[in-house]
Design a protein that fits this description.
Layout lengths: L1 E5 L2 E3 L4 E2 L2 E2 L2 E2 L6 H10 L4 E5 L3 E2 L4 E2 L1 E2 L13 E4 L2 E4 L5 H12 L2 H13 L6
Length: 125
């Protein structure tokens, strides 16, 4: 089974937020949690989180250093944006964070994410 779910934000810990904006409920997260868990328990299954790298109306990155609100899901196989994909499953936290910045985040957000990631203890290059 392969699940593909969207999110509003992801962080450098590969956690997804699919329900809240600035602390207020924006939308329900539907079956995201169930589909992520189902895919990961399925033989050969993968759980994919897809989102744009930048939110044009809010003019902000959808990849942030650390979520401040509830986490909708975590332990995904991949996180993808129009910029590329980060392989999350099977990699340590530092490798996950590096891939999310290099492959998923919008180029204009990458330097700040690297700096914030280092402050969180990630040995980022």
């Amino acid at each position: 089974m392969v699940s593909v779910n969207s999110a509003l934000q992801v962080d450098l810990f590969a956690q997804a937020n699919a329900s809240r904006v600035r602390g207020a409920i924006y939308s329900g997260f539907g079956g995201q949690t169930d589909f992520v868990v189902g895919a990961l328990h399925s033989p050969g299954g993968h759980a994919v989180i897809a989102l744009p790298s930048w939110h044009p109306r809010a003019d902000v990155s959808t990849v942030i250093a650390r979520l401040t609100g509830p986490v909708t899901s975590f332990q995904h196989s991949y996180i993808v944006s129009e910029r590329g994909a980060a392989t999350v499953w099977g990699n340590d936290a530092a490798s996950q964070a590096q891939q999310i910045i290099d492959n998923v985040a919008h180029p204009s957000a990458r330097d700040e994410l690297r700096e914030q990631g280092r402050e969180l203890g990630f040995p980022l290059r």
